[in-house]
Design goal:
This protein has 143 residues and is α/β, with parallel strands linked by helices. It has a single domain, classed as Sugar-phosphate isomerase, RpiB/LacA/LacB (Ribose 5-phosphate Isomerase B, Chain: A, 3-Layer(aba) Sandwich), CATH 3.40.1400.10. 43% of the residues lie in helices and 17% in strands. It is built from 6 helices and 5 strands. It has a 5-stranded parallel β-sheet with strand order 2-1-3-5-4, with helices on both faces. The longest helix is centred in the N-terminal third of the chain and has 13 residues.
Length: 143
């Protein structure tokens, strides 16, 4: 497993899960860029999604992880950025397919709806699954 550079952010609803997965990934040797939030005060998720997507677009990071209450707001926001393909995942198989078939570069998670162990499994599948290319690249080129 190759170590990755991962940008991560959450809103107030996702802060606990963000901190837990950041610590796990750091222990595994991945470089984490933590864009916050850093406390439980209410914040606007689009502000944090932008920080992570900027890192992906500028190639500062290999992957992005965005966490909010449902994961949906972060996914919608991230996917508005050119060059971002964000996938909302609740199980490892979807995370794996989002990489192998869609070459997604941002994973979004819903902290209120996913177990922390499953979230870590999703992240590990996501960052360790290569893009298959071929017919899948042809489809991505149409986006």
């Amino acid at each position: 497993m190759e170590n990755k550079k991962i940008s991560i952010a959450s809103d107030h609803a996702g802060i606990s899960l963000k901190e837990l997965v950041s610590e796990h990934l750091s222990r595994e040797g991945h470089e984490i860029i933590n864009h916050g939030t850093f406390n439980n005060d209410s914040v606007d998720y689009p502000d944090y999604a932008k920080k992570v997507t900027d890192d992906i677009i500028s190639k500062v990071s290999d992957f992005g992880i965005l966490i909010c209450g449902t994961g949906q707001g972060m996914a919608i926001t991230a996917n508005k950025q050119i060059g971002i393909r964000a996938a909302l995942c609740y199980e490892p198989e979807i995370a794996e397919l989002s990489r192998s078939h869609n070459d997604c570069n941002v994973l979004t998670l819903g902290a209120r709806f996913i177990d922390s162990n499953v979230a870590i499994e999703c992240i590990l599948k996501f960052i360790n699954t290569p893009f298959e290319g071929g017919r899948h690249q042809d489809r991505i080129d149409k986006i």
